[in-house]
Amino acid sequence: MFKKKASIIFKGLFVISCFFGLSLTSQDAPTYAIFLSYFTTQSNILCMLVMLLFFFITIYDQVRYTRFFRVLKASTTVAIMVTFLIYHFVLRPNMAPDIDNVAKGFGNLMVHYITPLWFLSDYLLFDFKGTTRWTDPFYYMIFPLYYFVFANVRAVTGDFFHYGSTISQFPYPFLDYLVYGNYGVSFAIIIITVAVLILGFVFVFFDHIMRKPKVQFHTNLYGTISYKPEQIENEAMPKNTPDIVVDLTHDLEDQNE
Q1: Is the pTM value of this prediction over 0.85?
Q2: In Å, how far are 41, 44, 175 from 147, measured between CA atoms?
Q3: What kind and span of H or E run contains 34?
Q4: Residue that terminates a domain, selected from 174, 194, 209
Q5: Could you give the number of structural domains in the chain?
Q6: CA 130 to CA 253: how far, in whole Å?
Q7: CA atoms of 163 and 58, how far apart (whole Å)
Q8: Residue 154 sits in the same domain as residue 28
Q9: Nearest to 160 by CA among 34, 35, 42, 28
Q10: Same domain, 23 and 54
């Protein structure tokens, strides 16, 4: 019960924090159309909506949600971590000094650091572990690939973006064909796509690592005792007593489908 209440509070506060971060960064955008064109904005909105969904799922005790919802949560986690990693290692080092002022600085801190790490923390603290499949990273690529398509369509139909003295049709410089050419942009997209795929496999790997060990229950005339697998293998069972060893651990994959 305590964990359920903690999860509800954690998710509720996240939704409020995420909305606050988006509100701050929207004030710096010249138009809402431009604000909504950034991957950061869209991934933050995705996080807010998904967390709101799981907020209500947790309230109504629907903790054994279907595989679709598990993939959705994991995909969103990977997408927001892409936001964090690209901002921290690619964009942040090249930004102008005025990014550190109060309005832009705190807003960027919220959407690029606090939201990604908070969303990841929700997975670490409350989600079932070991439910992912090794094919899931290909689903995680859907949102980033959608955004590449969106950015190109937006470049033809939308407003221009201003980076200091530079004017571009694209929300991010590494997507601008006029700056980096077809080969340069294609290379950037391939690198990011492969990085997302690798990040997805890393996520699945650690998800399986963090899975709780199986528990076996030994039932005999003296009652029911819980053992870890290595314990039950090393301990001799009582002789001349009727006994049953039952593995009550089922794969969460099979439970939830």
Answers
A1: no
A2: 11, 13, 11
A3: helix 32-35
A4: 209
A5: 2
A6: 8
A7: 42
A8: yes
A9: 34
A10: yes
- 152 shares its domain with 103: yes
Pairing of strands 161-163, 166-168: antiparallel
My answer on whether 197 and 145 are in the same domain is yes
Please report, in tens digits, the pLDDT of each residue of the chain (257 residues total): 788 999 999 999 999 999 999 999 998 888 899 999 999 999 999 999 999 999 999 998 765 668 899 999 999 999 999 999 998 888 777 766 555 554 567 888 999 999 999 999 999 999 989 999 999 999 999 999 999 999 999 998 888 887 777 788 998 888 999 888 999 999 999 999 999 999 999 999 999 999 876 544 444 444 444 444 444 444 444 555 444 444 444 444 444 44
For residue 224, what are the domain limits?
Answer: 216-256
> Cβ neighbours of residue 88 under 8 Å, at least 6 residues apart?
112, 113
Does 41 lie in the same domain as 162? yes
Structure tokens of 151?
């950015």
The token duo for 121 is: 């923390």
Residues 162 and 251 placed together within one structural domain of the fold: no
Same domain, 105 and 159: yes
One domain, residues 246 and 179: no
Whole-angstrom distance, CA of residue 73 vs CA of residue 75: 6
Q: Which long-range contacts (CB under 8 A, 24 or more apart) does 27-35 make?
A: 27/103, 27/107, 28/103, 28/104, 28/107, 30/159, 30/162, 31/159, 33/158, 33/159, 34/158, 34/159, 34/161, 34/171
Of 80, 72, 67, which is closest to residue 121 (Cα–Cα)?
80
